[in-house]
């Protein structure tokens, strides 16, 4: 049995808005939107991986808040886990540095205005459900 590899996604929140990142690569994903993040490296915890990935991909200093309940299958052996996160005080504004060509802060009524990657849709739904129930 192949060991599963966790990919962490950030539901990065600011003033009730969710950050979406548009993929620039690979070609089959380019132009679609996702929660920023990436693979957990060996010996790294998912929360540390998320902070590192946000620094590498967006140039920000962030902190995780809480896990979004659930886990979503990607192509084997990958699974997606999502944490809500927020920018640390004094962090730079997010910029698309790596794997993305655009970012958008989406208010709750704008979340479905972008073409999310299929595998991110259930994670975004779960994030919104958590926000609607008052979780931060």
UniProtKB/TrEMBL annotation:
SUPFAM superfamilies recorded: Nudix
One annotated GO molecular function: 8-oxo-7,8-dihydrodeoxyguanosine triphosphate pyrophosphatase activity
Keywords tagged on the record: DNA damage, DNA repair, DNA replication, Hydrolase, Magnesium, Metal-binding, Mutator protein
Cofactor(s), names only, from the UniProt record: Mg(2+)
Enzyme kind, highest EC tier: hydrolase
CDD domains: NUDIX_MutT_NudA_like (cd03425)
Domain of life: Bacteria
Catalyzed chemical reaction(s): 8-oxo-dGTP + H2O = 8-oxo-dGMP + diphosphate + H(+)
Limits of the Nudix hydrolase domain: 3-131
UniProt cross-references to PROSITE patterns, sorted A to Z: NUDIX, NUDIX_BOX
GO BP: any one term: DNA repair
Record-linked InterPro entries: MutT-like (IPR047127), Nudix_hydrolase (IPR020476), NUDIX_hydrolase-like_dom_sf (IPR015797), NUDIX_hydrolase_CS (IPR020084), NUDIX_hydrolase_dom (IPR000086)
EC number: 3.6.1.55
Keyword Protein biosynthesis listed: no
UniProt similarity note: Belongs to the Nudix hydrolase family.
Name under which the protein is recorded: 8-oxo-dGTP diphosphatase
Protein's organism: Streptomyces humidus
């Amino acid at each position: 049995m192949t060991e599963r590899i966790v990919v962490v996604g950030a539901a990065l929140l600011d003033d009730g808005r969710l950050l979406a990142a548009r993929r620039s690569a690979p070609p089959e994903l380019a132009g679609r939107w996702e929660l920023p993040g990436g693979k957990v490296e060996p010996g790294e915890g998912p929360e540390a991986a998320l902070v590192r990935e946000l620094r590498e991909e967006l140039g920000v200093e962030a902190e995780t808040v809480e896990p979004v309940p659930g886990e979503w299958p990607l192509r084997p052996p990958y699974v997606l886990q999502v944490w809500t996160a927020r920018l640390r005080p004094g962090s730079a504004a997010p910029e698309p540095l790596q794997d993305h060509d655009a970012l958008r802060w989406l208010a709750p009524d704008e979340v479905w205005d972008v073409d999310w990657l299929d595998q991110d849709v259930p994670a975004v739904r779960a994030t919104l459900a958590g926000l609607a129930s008052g979780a931060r």
